[in-house]
Design a protein that fits this description.
The protein is α/β, with parallel strands linked by helices. 38% of the residues lie in helices and 11% in strands. It has helices at residues 17-20, 33-40, 54-57, 61-66, 108-111, 123-129, 151-167, 177-188, 193-202, 207-217, and strands at residues 5-9, 22-23, 29-30, 43-47, 68-70, 76-78, 84-88. The strands form three sheets. It has a three-stranded parallel sheet with strand order 1-4-7. The protein has a two-stranded antiparallel ribbon with strand order 2-3. Strand 5 and strand 6 (76-78) form a beta hairpin. Helix 7 (151-167) packs antiparallel against helix 8 (177-188). It is globular and about 65 Å long. The N and C termini lie far apart (41 Å). 24% of the residues are buried.
Length: 219
């Protein structure tokens, strides 16, 4: 994409100061990589984001959704217009699963800040990494599933989705205003129904649960 970025790995021992920076013994503010990305308009990539603890990852909430952060030196800063945040992880942020026993369960407020995109193994890329260049990568159709008629249709769908989630008392799953904002932004960018439903609505909801709700939504 031609974007400059900062990659910050996360572990269960990553402190909040990794994101906010800190004041040293002489009273000087030491900026963090996250702060640099936020103020200079870089892409911040939180690698292994689900390895960080919820008490640390929630520090990113205001920065990502509101574009405003107050750093330890007392300065309140507005995000550069080109700042963007990406979290890469092996789980959906709901705790350890399968072989990923070190993954932490993230707070719903953190998960609500992201659009989720499951990226399967690209066998074409895999082949090219070992010098085999005739294996094709899978095609990607961003309009898959057809288009919603307009944002009103999306709004009404999400409001119905929210009522179903509330009726079923599904815990640790947030269907807030950001869901609507993200879904409509994807629609305006040209994405089809498949991508909007999967990335902005379903997100980290278990597949079987999503299938049941989808059936109710289609009635």
């Amino acid at each position: 994409l031609g974007r400059k970025f900062i990659l910050q790995p996360f572990t269960s021992q990553t402190p909040a100061s990794t994101l906010t920076g800190y004041m040293d013994a002489n009273g000087n503010y030491v900026k963090s990589p996250f702060c640099n990305a936020f103020t200079d308009g870089l892409v911040f990539i939180g690698d292994e984001f689900d390895r960080g603890t919820a008490r640390v990852t929630t520090v990113t909430n205001s920065a990502i959704s509101n574009g405003v952060v107050t750093f330890p030196n007392g300065e309140t800063v507005t995000a550069h217009k080109n700042f963007a945040a990406i979290a890469t992880q092996n789980t959906y942020g709901t705790g350890s699963v399968g072989a990923y026993v070190g993954a932490s369960q993230q707070d719903a407020s953190v998960l609500d800040r992201f659009v989720f995109l499951w990226i399967p193994l690209d066998e074409g890329l895999e082949a090219s990494l070992v010098g085999v260049h005739d294996v094709p990568s899978p095609k990607c159709d961003l309009t898959e599933g057809g288009r919603f008629a307009n944002v009103r249709e999306i709004l009404e769908l999400i409001q119905r989705f929210r009522r179903i989630v509330e009726k079923r008392s599904i815990l640790n799953f947030e269907v807030g205003q950001r869901t609507t904002i993200f879904a409509c932004a994807m629609h305006k960018a040209g994405f089809g129904k498949r991508w909007i439903l999967e990335c902005a609505l379903q997100r980290y909801m278990p597949l079987e649960q999503w299938k049941n709700i989808s059936a109710e939504l289609s009635k």
